[in-house]
Fold:
Amino acid sequence: MRRVAATRVYINEKEFRNHVVELFNHLVVNHYALLGELPMTEWLGGTIIVRGREAYHIPQVLSSAELGAYDGSGNGNIERL
Structure:
């Protein structure tokens, strides 16, 4: 299992701040608030977007308004987790 965290996480268009996403074989199996330091957690920063059971990372922090207008350009690429 892989545990990642980011400044902003969007799940079904709902925004969470400082949130953890757990993945197994690249599929989301759980998510929850990051309340303190967790062992074996990768801090990715930026924004994680969860669509269905797949998760994608954007290295920059995006607000919900910016996310709607995001075209994939800027500081890096979208990475599937």
About this structure: Strands lie at 2-11, 14-24, 27-33, 41-43, 47-51, 54-58, 79-80.
